[in-house]
Input
Amino acid sequence: MNESTVMANVVVDRLLANGVTDVVLAPGSRSTPLALRLAAAEREGAIRLHVRIDERSAAFLALGIAKVSRLPIAVVCTSGTAVANLAPAVVEAAYAGLPLIVISADRPPELRGVGANQTIDQVGFFGQQVRTAVDLLASGQDAQAPATWRKVTDRVIHDAIGLGHRGPAPVQLNVGFREPLVPELGSGQSPLATADISDLTPPKVMREPINFAVGDLGLAEIPARGIVLIGDVPSPEIAGQAMELADECGWPCISEPSGNALAGATAIPAAAVLLADEEFRTSHAPDFLLTVGRFGISRPIMKLVALADHHLAVNVGGKDRPDPLRTAATILPAVPRPPDGDPVVGRAPRDDRWLRDWLTKSSEAQQRVGAAIADGPFSGLAVTATCWAGMDSDDLIFAAASRTVRNLEATMTPRHFPPWVIGNRGTSGIDGLVSTAWGAAVAHQRQSPDGRTVAILGDLAFLHDHNGLLAPSVEQRPNLTIVVADNNGGGIFSSLEQGDSDFVADFERVFGTPHDLDLEEIARAAGITTTSVTDAEQLAVALGRDSDGVQIIIARTIDREAEQSQWAGLLRGR
Ligand SMILES: Cc1ncc(C[n+]2csc(CCOP(=O)(O)OP(=O)(O)O)c2C)c(N)n1
Output
């Protein structure tokens, strides 16, 4: 068996042995040994292989599968710019803390840096965005080489999973293949390391709640006027721990959409709308704030964070410490245990008036949002409200950055058993979202066969990754509904300073970027069942239709200016 075939077999076999369930591959020549081994592994039922033409979409597809399955997922590509196309997903994986394993095929050392075709300097291309970047090199006749490749590959996979580290992260394994790239005719294939992935239990990094001492904060006891703010969290366990703490202490619990923490008795929905009220905000500045995960979607909520006397942040994974205003006194590695019965923490005295104030004001804010939607035109808010109302507890919502996630934040009503919400919150990109949602749907369908995935995207986000729709014909079509809130451009910019009348002359050209495209035609060109809706009722009907594959609903909303005045009215309290 030639050396490149042996190398590829080692790499694929170690993926299997370490519990990697899915690999996404984009076709190429230098990656041939890997592609052939992966195809063989898929044929034997040892791995699920997904193939995409565009490497950027391929990497986001892998990211989406990793996000929902919480398992290490690999993306394999050829040399050259193919590798560079993986960068956006690698960056998102770094900041969100996801185990994305990049396997980039390369030429052997003697063909690097000498102008060989399709060859770039690609080892370490991802810089500080990956935890580990390793070059696996062909070694001539060294009989010990396969054992070394095995060890190195294991280490790279373990670094992705986070063994010996604090949580998962992306990694790069670069493999320098020397020709021949195909096995010798008649040489046969060595048997796969394992043929049944269901036998493997991949190592997981557990995050049990922890005890902490209030003395760490310079406090004698935890104040009664506390708030819990939950940003992006990777698992229901963490959201549950945070809600339990808020409930036990009687602290209002504010949750960003992917905080998934509006199921408790102290949930504060529509918090951004409520906190736009400056009078309430300043008179209800918390003495104690616990934040969980990366947060920072809404300006009014950030203003509240700035007012907190004592801030304790919990880091649930990802590259940065989640403390964007540099206000946290301490960063904890896990959610603190509720104080009840724990002498280390001390009991938090309850202030029922404090909680009542928050609950009352939050319910008023919710009513204002509800009335604005019921009496108003078909806007992005109506889109997220309709999706939220139409989904069950075994469903998954993928929410795009920009207006969508803020609209969802305002329209998520508390439910005991809500659908689970995710988004690419690591870096809030509007890239790769169709593919991430597709990957999320693949994994979700496996975990919850009766559930579905609904992705809500703005039109620019949809267009940015419409390549993600172009899956080769034999590829799996998961149960995924993509709802595009089409306001013909970037709506979020109207809510920012550049949306002021001072900049009106340049606004549409350099921020709004209307495209005037018929998104239905674009979706149909990709061969996907598509409908357009123009009001909330039609959207509810379209969402309610049975679908077991990918479908798209174009929600033609009011224009961006009208959406902005609806939002401005809500924030002004009208
Ligand atoms: C990759 C990337 N490029 C640019 C941006 C900056 N950006 C943030 S929101 C936005 C506009 C998004 O428009 P759309 O998806 O239509 O959503 P809307 O604001 O209308 O809800 C842009 C370009 C980004 N976040 N990510």
The pocket of thiamine diphosphate is lined by residues 380, 401-404, 428-431, 458-461, 487, 490-492 (CB under 6 Å). The chain is about 35% helix and 15% strand. Confidence is low (pLDDT under 50) at residues 195-203. The first helix runs from residue 3 to 17.
